[in-house]
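Hi R.,

Quick one: here's the Fetuin-B-like protein sequence you asked about.
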Amino acid sequence: MKALLVFVVWAQLSSSRAEPSPQPIAPLLLDSTNCNDSNTIKVSGLALQEINRNRREGYIYNLVSIRSALKQSQGNAGMVYYLTLGVDETECHVLSRKDWRSCESRMFHQSVAGECNATLHINNLERIVCLHDYNCSLTSADRRTVSEICPDCPIDRDDKENESSINSANKALTNYNQNSNNTKYFNLLNVTKYSFQGMFFEAHFVEFTIVETACSKKQTVKNLSKCKPLAPGVAQFGFCKASVQIVNMKDGTTVTCELYQPEEYRDLNHPDHCRNQALIEQLPRQPRSE
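And here's the predicted structure, written out as tokens:
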């Protein structure tokens, strides 16, 4: 009987005992990585490649330096990297989809530089790379410094879509439409860069994007603005660089354009941008560390 009583008391105490409070889960630690490590360089190159791939305006960024790199293990799900990259602007437009390693950085008087912060997730088991988020902040070279070092260098205008730049772009585009072998006319999309030089002679330097229209060059078109662009996925896009100037009382307009094949529409507002790692496993050139 005594043994039974002890058992009953023990059972009652056991059933009324409060469950222990769950221990807080320790946050996953961030490990710093050596910015000169070959894997860090590769990951940084992948991150910048994905940043450029997801942009639709402006110019491709070049990797100048790795300013900081942290990583966070996700177990079997791979590794998340938190990167701060020193970058500068190249002469390649993002529409070209070129690899940043094949693009030249701009000359001193046109230089634009800054940094990008990015979060990149690499899952080696599934061979997937995801750019979760990024933000970039770049500034142009100081005009006063440029003027002191190179007083006759053309300086970029902040108001790149002004009357002079648009007139210069349209004049250059007319030249291109008349002399190209394209079967359809192209129309102006945006002026992306504009500079003016007037110390020794008046010259306008303009860069702009163009889009293929439905108007055939077999027909005479007096007003290109009435030509509607072809539908997305059908229209070719292009990027042009032009110099518009008067030399010895003659028109000295020169223009070169690159055309890019139609792209399928993609929703760029999706927070995650993932693709197969096999497509982008390329080791970028080693940047300097800071």
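The domain at 31-142 is CATH 3.10.450.10 (Nuclear Transport Factor 2; Chain: A,).

Cheers,
M.
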